[in-house]
Specification:
This protein is an alpha/beta fold and 314 residues long. It has one domain: Rossmann fold (3-Layer(aba) Sandwich), CATH 3.40.50.300. It is built from eleven helices and ten strands. The strands form two sheets. It has an eight-stranded mixed β-sheet, with helices on both faces. Strands 6-7 form a two-stranded antiparallel ribbon. Strand 3 and strand 4 form a beta hairpin. Pfam families: ArsA_ATPase. This is Arsenite-activated ATPase ArsA. InterPro entries: ArsA/GET3_ATPase-like, ATPase_ArsA/GET3, P-loop_NTPase.
């Protein structure tokens, strides 16, 4: 897999909903962990199902995956992150400022903007926390669908510039006076994202015109903010062998190959991997481990044989 060759510290998987980002990010995490690497898998999707994939509760704290040595995971919960963020801002000033001032700050921090910025705040901490980064060989991000991801990755530059231009103002970040530390952290996050030695973006698509068009737009928008090291993975491609004796499968195969052959020009120079469609559900470590192999079947499930009805011959 080209997208896993000489991987940098940060790997981002993005693409339209339903293209297999979570399966790919989880399979990549398992693959690297089994090479002896220490991996942190982070979901920034509010609808994350990483816990379901590993059959383990994860949540908004770093949790070791019990079935894979060296792999931990974290699901950023926007609502919980927002509550913790508000408390970090308001807690220190309770009792130190008049009640009406504290109430004003709380109201200022009650909107959807604060929820977004709180999740983003946790995200930037993962990019800039030297102690955390030193603990892991690779940090893999399973992101929300494309539009949310683009906004998330654009925010470090946007907020860094906003704080610089409005040092005495206020926003859903809280009162901005004295937030030089945040500005520095967001600037560091921008540097990490735009450094090809530290960050790689994996654009995930299906062999369909609509998803290839969407990742082409994402490629251009994210390249414009400095994320230049990008790979393309076309997931779930129907193997030619499946189309030999089935007219419907043959039609699907032709349509997919046409979509790949006519993909947007901006994608054609990107390193490309194609992953074949699997005939089983990609849930569980063994199934995910087979995603990058030529195996057509997941590990067998052992089911007890039913009891023989009375009176029937053996």
């Amino acid at each position: 897999m080209l997208f896993l060759q000489n991987p940098p510290t940060f790997l981002f998987f993005t693409g339209k909903g339903g293209v297999g980002k979570t399966s790919l990010s989880c399979a990549s995490a398992i693959h690297l962990a089994r090479q002896g690497k220490k991996i942190l898998l982070v979901s920034t999707d509010p609808a994350s199902n990483v816990g379901q994939v590993f059959s383990q509760e994860i949540g908004n704290k770093i949790t070791a995956i019990s079935t894979v040595a060296g792999l931990s995971a974290l699901e950023i919960d926007p609502q919980q992150a927002a509550q913790q963020y508000r408390e970090r801002i308001v807690g220190p000033v309770r009792g130190a400022l008049p009640d009406d001032v504290v109430k004003g700050i709380e109201e200022q921090l009650s909107g959807a903007c604060t929820t977004e910025i709180a999740a983003f705040d946790e995200f930037t901490a993962l990019l800039t926390d030297a102690t955390l980064i030193a603990d892991y060989d690779h940090i893999i991000f399973d992101t929300a669908p494309t539009g949310h991801t683009i906004r998330l990755l654009q925010l470090p530059g946007a907020w860094s510039g906003f704080i610089e231009k409005n040092p005495e103002g206020a926003s859903c970040l809280g009162p901005l006076a004295g937030l030089e530390k945040q500005r520095q952290r967001y600037a560091e996050a921008v540097k990490a994202l735009s450094d090809p030695e530290r960050t790689r973006l994996i654009l995930v698509a299906r062999a369909q015109k609509t998803t290839l068009d969407e990742v082409a737009r994402a490629h251009e928008e994210l390249a414009a903010i400095g994320l230049s090291r990008q790979n393309l993975v076309i997931n779930g491609v129907l193997p030619e062998s499946e189309a030999v004796h089935d007219a419907l499968a043959a039609a699907i195969h032709r349509r997919e190959q046409a979509a790949i052959a006519n993909m947007p020009a901006v994608l054609r120079d990107l390193p490309l991997d194609q992953l074949p469609l699997k005939a089983f559900n990609l849930v569980g470590v063994e199934a995910l481990s087979s995603l990058f192999s030529d195996r057509d079947e997941a590990a067998p499930v052992v089911v007890d044989a039913p009891a023989k009805p009375v009176g029937l011959p053996p």
